[in-house]
Amino acid sequence: MSLLSISGLRKSFGDNVVLDGFDMDVAPGECVVLIGASGSGKSTLLRCVNLLETVDDGVIELAGQDITDPRVNPDQVRARMGMVFQAYNLFPHLSVLDNIMLAPVRVHRRRARAEAATAAQEILERVGLADKARVRPDELSGGQQQRVAIARALVNSPELMLLDEVTSALDPELVGEVLDLLVSLKADGMTMVLATHEMAFAKEVADRVCFLHGGQIHEEGPPASLLTAPTRERTRAFLARFVGL
Amino acid sequence: MTAGEHTDARRAWVPSALELERRAYRRSRTVRSAAIASISTIILVGVLGFVVTSSSGWPRVKETFFDWDKAVASFPAVLNGLWLNIRVLLVCSVLITALGLTIAVIRTLRGPVFFPLRLFGAAFTDLFRGLPLLLVLLLLGFGVPALGLDGVPQEAVFWGCAALVLSYSAYVAEVFRAGIESVHPSQRAAARSLGLTHTQSLRFVIVPQAIRRVLPPLLNDFVSLQKDSGLIAVLGVVDAIRAAQIETARDFNFTPYVVAGVLFVCLTIPMARFTDWVARKQGFQGGGLL
Q1: Which end of chain A is more exposed for a tag (fewer CB within 10 A), N or C?
Q2: Which residues in chain B come in under a pLDDT of 50?
């Protein structure tokens, strides 16, 4: 069964219909990469799944539960997923460790503070920033900040990770750090939906690449075939701008 | 898909049965919470009203504070006084904004050349935030005219306003300064990179953003000023409070004070709602009336 199942999703902002009858299924452990021009709805889709936007129509199911149902508590749904933003969105008034511990202590109350601190420290080691625990986010490089943001999402053991152009603000060298982290996440069997302009990402981690256009998936397939031999005109035109594929 | 097809698809969209059901559910929740809010409010007001009016002292309270005839009789005098408060408020708020902003900008100037200015700005805010408003009022309102200096105004209203402007400018300057400091350094960098001078970047980039950001706390200060404009009554000026005092002194019925109080509240409520509205427009979540 799919972990995430989206059908007939519609989302508009005023007159601008961003998603228009969008369908997508994501199997457990699968990594789906969304590509497409700016404004094609990649971010909107992730925000809808995270219930940061109220959908106009359609259904989003997480592990069989309709999460677009207004009777569902959105906080409980969000606690089951991890979201990582383009601009990191770390809390500048908290140390790296406190950024990571905030949700375990305040939302996932099953954890005692000391236990949460241990878990946070472990996850920081995992992302290679064990020595930065006491530092404020603004003292870190972009790549380090983004790894902290990923750690902050991971520490809650999410069923699903949503990553919204997580490397767009990073220089190529720092992109590598984050990409390595995602590759290892995928190896651990994490289910991920990832919006990106970075075709290297699509190649390295994707099980499936979806090209978004006109509010729907215009074309999809495994990275090897979609990126190198797209069948539809629009996809070809979009990918033509990325040399060396 | 072409643009034309897109438009057709949009026009053709009809909400699914599921979406209609979701909307109906959300609507029913809204109605339900509105009903709960109204009923609990009515019950609370009813209980409070009953407790107050059934207590033994109520007739005397009513007679002394809520005497309708007395209220009607004193209304014109109090309203006339309030007109002075309003004029004081209007003039003072313009002057306070100008002086406050000037001092805030002075305090953000950099470089050793501006040290005396910065020192002045810091001293001004320290002094007038520290001095009780009433003290400044008495010093200026009674003290200065008593000197009998040539060319110095003698009117109590003038010195009352001066005291309000000095005290409030110190507060408002700090609000503005907080706003200026809160604009991210990258904005200054971007402005300077375009070749704008320090003053120009303040004028065209930093201060406009700062003002937008501090508007709610700023308006809060002006609501406060609305009430404190009544303090100039200590100088013998007949404003709303003084007028109410005069009316009360005739028969020791305190209703005119209540009338003045109601008028002041009526004056501040639109201001407070305006503050909420501005805050909401800027994307402040929550707050406001409901």
Answers
A1: N
A2: 1-5, 286-290
